[in-house]
């Protein structure tokens, strides 16, 4: 698998390339160099630990956007069973930027809703690169209300640059669609667990991000605007994106410190894209734990605790 190393990972990339060369030599001849390969693999692992122990906010942003990072659909296939996708807002569109449907989580019926960016070029275009239009959010709203009607716990997976900023989206009332979702989610009488799996951008993320528990993967980000957008506004240049990322506090650690999320989910060494199965298994265990906590609460307790949670944002402790 080509890991598509990022710029700051080049020392790791060079070491991995050398290991690959030695493996090819070992496979093609009688020379036993397994000890040398093992030594370099250990060195590569330690180097990766060192590099990832001191990541900047901008480097974390790059990992969150990694082209091979797992998407919502990758977690659906590994965490849930019997997934039946539901489409459309029943007015204008099937809502391709958000994937949603009923599934089973450890045998229990649940509702799953998440952003989906697509992988190949044509799929990315069809899914609008994971940037939802109002119709996508109204589709999500239909799923939320359906889940409440049948008392299904809701799992949302957040991974978007933000809501689509096009003219047609504004004509179809993008802001109202987002606001309506915030309003409904805040009062929904069923457990809601939200997980930021990649990039959580602005209202595009919040529209499916109001829940009883909000989690973030270790190398995901959550922010009011993209670092490039912030830099363009404050410094009139997107070249200052790294500075903006640091100033905004986009990382999971910074969001946890501000009590905007509940827990950081550790990723495999080098990021979630290095091992989809291990990442999904870790996430599955934590989702099960959080769901068990919430299912012990009555509907009125869920709503009251969710309200108190929302009202606590911005309070200095």
Description:
The chain is built from 14 helices and eight strands. Strands 1, 2, 3, 4, 5, 6, 7 and 8 form an eight-stranded mixed β-sheet that branches. It has helices at residues 10-28, 34-52, 57-64, 72-79, 121-126, 134-149, 167-171, 174-187, 202-206, 227-234, 241-248, 252-257, 276-294, 299-312; strands at 81-85, 98-105, 108-115, 154-160, 192-201, 213-217, 221-223, 263-265. It is of the alpha/beta class and 317 residues long. The relative contact order is 0.12. Helix 4 (72-79) crosses helix 13 (276-294), helix 6 (134-149) runs parallel beside helix 8 and helix 10 crosses helix 11. The protein is globular, with a radius of gyration of 21 Å.
Oligomer: single chain
* Mass-distribution shape: globular
Structural class: alpha/beta
Terminal CA distance reads 46 Å
Q: How big is the Rg?
A: 21 Å
The succession of helices and strands, N to C, reads: HHHHEEEHHEHHEHEEHHHEHH
Percent in strands: 15-25%
How many strand segments? Answer: 8
Quick synopsis:
This protein is an alpha/beta fold.
């Amino acid at each position: 698998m080509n890991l598509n190393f990022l710029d700051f990972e080049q020392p790791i990339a060079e070491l991995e390339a050398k290991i690959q060369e030695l493996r090819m030599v070992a496979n093609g001849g009688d020379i036993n160099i397994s000890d040398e390969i093992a030594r370099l693999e250990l060195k590569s692992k330690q180097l990766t630990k060192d590099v990832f122990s001191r990541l900047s906010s901008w480097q974390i942003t790059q990992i969150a956007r990694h082209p091979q990072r797992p998407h919502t659909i990758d977690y659906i296939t590994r965490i849930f069973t019997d997934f039946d996708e539901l489409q459309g807002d029943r007015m204008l569109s099937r809502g391709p930027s958000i994937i949603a449907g009923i599934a089973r989580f450890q045998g229990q019926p649940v509702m799953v809703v998440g952003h989906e960016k697509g992988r190949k070029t044509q799929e990315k275009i069809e899914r609008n690169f994971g940037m939802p239009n109002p119709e996508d959010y109204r589709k999500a709203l239909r799923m939320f209300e359906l889940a409440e009607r049948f008392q299904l716990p809701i799992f949302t997976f957040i991974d978007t640059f933000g809501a689509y900023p096009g003219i047609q989206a504004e004509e179809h009332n993008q802001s109202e669609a987002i606001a309506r979702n915030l309003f409904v989610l805040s009062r929904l009488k069923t457990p809601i667990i939200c997980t930021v799996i990649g990039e959580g951008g602005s209202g595009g993320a919040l529209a499916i991000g109001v829940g009883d528990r909000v989690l973030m993967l270790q190398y995901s980000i959550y922010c009011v605007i993209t670092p490039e957008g912030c830099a363009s506004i404050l410094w009139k240049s997107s070249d200052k994106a790294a500075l903006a990322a640091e100033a905004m506090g986009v990382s999971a650690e910074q969001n946890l410190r501000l009590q905007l999320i509940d827990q950081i989910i550790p990723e495999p060494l080098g990021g979630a894209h290095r091992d989809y199965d291990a990442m999904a298994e870790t996430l599955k265990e934590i989702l099960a734990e959080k769901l068990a906590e919430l299912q012990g609460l009555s509907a009125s307790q869920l709503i009251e605790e969710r309200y108190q949670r929302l009202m606590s944002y911005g309070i200095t402790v």
